[in-house]
Design brief:
mainly alpha, Serine Threonine Protein Phosphatase 5, Tetratricopeptide repeat
């Protein structure tokens, strides 16, 4: 058995990517179990931690998105909103835009749905749709639209 040697930064990056990518299979399930969501939440926080050590603002915004998504899947409104707001703030302050802006709005939509605040849910649902419509890439538009279509604010 060989041991992979890497720098601390390489380790942070590897762990951030691995844990982030490990969340999607759970979020893509129609009804993930509580245990699956708990594991996804641990991975989301782990990814955020590692990106906070070596990532750019875009990486941290995406990690905040994932943490918010998992909290929203649990219907834990307060932490879902906290992390969605952080994601949106980073996205807006850095002008990341496009795909990332649509997903930041989508995180806000889900968090307000978890909070049961229909007016804000609908507001961010419309902002998400507007951001999707303005996106350049067809494939990115399809991915974002698929996620938005899963949300019912009514």
């Amino acid at each position: 058995m060989s041991i992979e040697k890497m720098t601390l930064d390489e380790f942070h990056k590897k762990m951030a990517i691995t844990t982030n990518n490990g969340i999607w299979p759970t979020l893509d399930k129609e009804k993930p179990s509580k245990e699956e969501l708990e594991e996804a939440l641990h991975m989301a926080h782990t990814s955020l931690y590692h990106w906070s050590k070596i990532g750019q603002p875009i990486n941290i915004a995406r990690a905040e998105y994932m943490v918010s998504r998992v909290y929203s899947a649990f219907s834990w409104a307060e932490p879902a909103l906290h992390h969605a707001r952080r994601c949106l703030k980073i996205t807006e302050e850095t002008g990341i835009g496009d795909f990332d802006l649509a997903f930041a709005y989508e995180a806000m939509t889900r968090a307000y749905l978890a909070a049961g605040v229909k007016k804000e849910c609908k507001k961010y649902q419309l902002l998400t749709q507007k951001a999707i419509n303005a996106m350049k890439g067809e494939e990115d538009r399809k991915i974002c639209q698929t996620e938005l279509d899963k949300i019912e604010c009514d």
